[in-house]
Amino acid sequence: MESGAGAVADESGAVQSPHPEVPLVRGVRLADGSELEADALVDASGRRSNVPGWWQATIGWWQATIGAHAPWEESTPIGVVYYGRHFAVRTGAPEALVAAPGPARVNLGYLRCTLRPTDNRTFIVSFTAMGQLRNTWRRFVVNGAPVALGLHVVGDAVCHTNPSHAKGASLAFAHAVAVADALDAVPHDPMRRAL
Asked: Is 83 in a helix, a strand, or coil?
C-alpha cells in the first residue's frame, strides 16, 4: 500500500455489518482513491503495518457511533537496530562460500555481524547494533469482541520480536495457517472467523 491508502470500513451503512456493534472492513482504499472490495482483508505488511494508523483515523467515528474498541497494543524497546541484506554467490565461485553448516559471527559487544547461508547459493549478512527496535504485540480481540470484522492481521503486523532471534517467519506461517483454517471453516461468518 502506498501512503494515503487505508482500510475501507462501513461508515455509510451501504454494507451492513452482521454484528452492528463491530465495524465491518469490506476492502481497501488505494492511494489514488480507488477501492477494492473483499470479503476478508489480510494485513501481512510487517512491523510497520498501517492498520493502527487506519484505526486511529476512524476510531472517533466508531467509538461515538457504536462504541467500538481500538486494537490493544503493548510495546517494549529492545535497544537494538537490525540491518540485513541478501547476496547471491557468483557463478563459478567455490561452493564452500554457502555450504557452511551454520552462521559465522563476529561480536564486538556494541555491534554483532552474522553471515548466514540461506538457499540457492545465497546468504544474508546482518548487523545488529544499539538502536530503537521494539517488541510489539497487538490484539484485535478486546474484551472478548473483535475490533473489526473482515480484518485479519498476521505476522509482524500483529506481533514482532528482535529479528536476530529469527522467530518472525515461524510466527507468520502459524498466523497464515490459522487465518486460512478460519476462512475455510466459517467462510460466511466474519464474527466466528475473528474469534
From this structure: strand
